[in-house]
Amino acid sequence: MLGFGLAIEPQLWALIFVMVRIGAAFVVAPVFGAVSIPLPVRVSLSGAIGLLVLAAHPITPPAQIFAVTTFLAVAAEALVGLAMGFILQVAFSAPLIASELIGGSMGIGFASSIDPQNGRSSPALGQFMSIMLTLLFLSVDGHLVLVEMLVKSYDVMPPGTWLAVGRLRDIAFFGGYAFLAGLLLALPVGFLLLCLNLIVGMLSRAAPALNLFAIGLPASLAVGVVALAIAFPAMGDYMLVIIREGLAAVQSLVFG
């Protein structure tokens, strides 16, 4: 009996309770939280992983649904899942920051399109880099690592456990890593564009009658495209570092 004369199968109630943490993580996590993934697929995937969790961990859900302790336990589960997915989402925002820096210097910051990951308009260059980061994330089995940490999180944080204040502080501090990673990701191309701007500035002082808009903008676009083509292997290597740091931050959140 779960309150108000209602009854439910204990196994089904345990599965629903376990799915709260997993589903909350999938709502905000990269790849799983994309708007292109239908809601039934997310629910089915959360249920499948929930069955694995129940098979590996003896989880006892709250005795009653309509109780304050149950609502608090569900809120704690949702907070843990949201925190795990949010950390990865912060790491995945680094390419968008890098694209803003590069696109503004190249003169293509106004070029935008609909991002299939979140359904909102984003810079075209940032969308390209985000897709590359997503493909690298899938190639190194980052999605499987996230699922593994979700399953293992029930060992160190049983259902109903609230996140400590120190771990919430670490999540806030990790937000600064997105700006650092975005700056380092844009550094090779941004440095060349900065040198080009210095050259154009010296030309403007040497020849004030020179039409800088007719020379500077095409030069910035050409140098930016060439620099992206040359520096993209190094940028891809640093994207792997971003993925590793994001997964490490999730592991630190779970295991301390």
From TrEMBL:
It comes from the Bacteria. It holds the Pfam family Bac_export_1. The chain crosses the membrane at residues 12-32, 39-59, 65-88, 128-151, 171-200, 212-232. The keyword Transmembrane helix applies. It is a multi-pass membrane protein. PANTHER family: FLAGELLAR BIOSYNTHETIC PROTEIN FLIR. This is Flagellar biosynthetic protein FliR.
